[in-house]
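Example record

One chain of 190 residues, shown exactly as stored in the release files.
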Amino acid sequence: MLWPEKDIFDGIRKGDRKIFDLVFKEYYSGLCTFATDYVRNHDTAREIVQEVFFNLWENHHKIYINSSLKAYLYRSVHNLCVNFLRNSSQFARNNIQLEQVKQQADLLFIEMPDDIFEAAFTEQLEQKLDKAIENLPEQCRIVFCASRYENLSYPEIAEKLNISLSTVKTQMSRAMDKLREIVDNYLKDR
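Predicted structure tokens for this chain:
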């Protein structure tokens, strides 16, 4: 975004529809991708993200954001995803373990204090992660991008790339390990 965050926060608190629309356009797609990684359903993910924006709009006059806007939005989506998974019969039917959700959150420091969570979204770290993704081995990068950016499930990736499900899992594990290493090193240097 081109505007200073203070101006964006002030605009949201004042109910400035133009600023709210800019924030929505800037973050909606990425938040949907993020939510889909948790709930594994595009429609549910969109509903969760829409609920976050609805709550932001409805409560704009009493919301105080003490982190970056991006950190606030991602934290809000994360919380609603976890609530959905805890309360959903789909959670039990698919045998998704909360521990798996927490492992996915590790990369983004969802369970850590706000100051560390906010640091995870700095421009510098984003650039390091983008570069790390570009430098992943080809198959590893393709699998990771198919999962994260195309919202494909592991079986869909295996079918699309004509590789085994086991290979997809291995490549995703390698990618996540490499990206966690980048984040860990970044936080050590801070």
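Notes: The chain has two domains: 1-108, 122-190.
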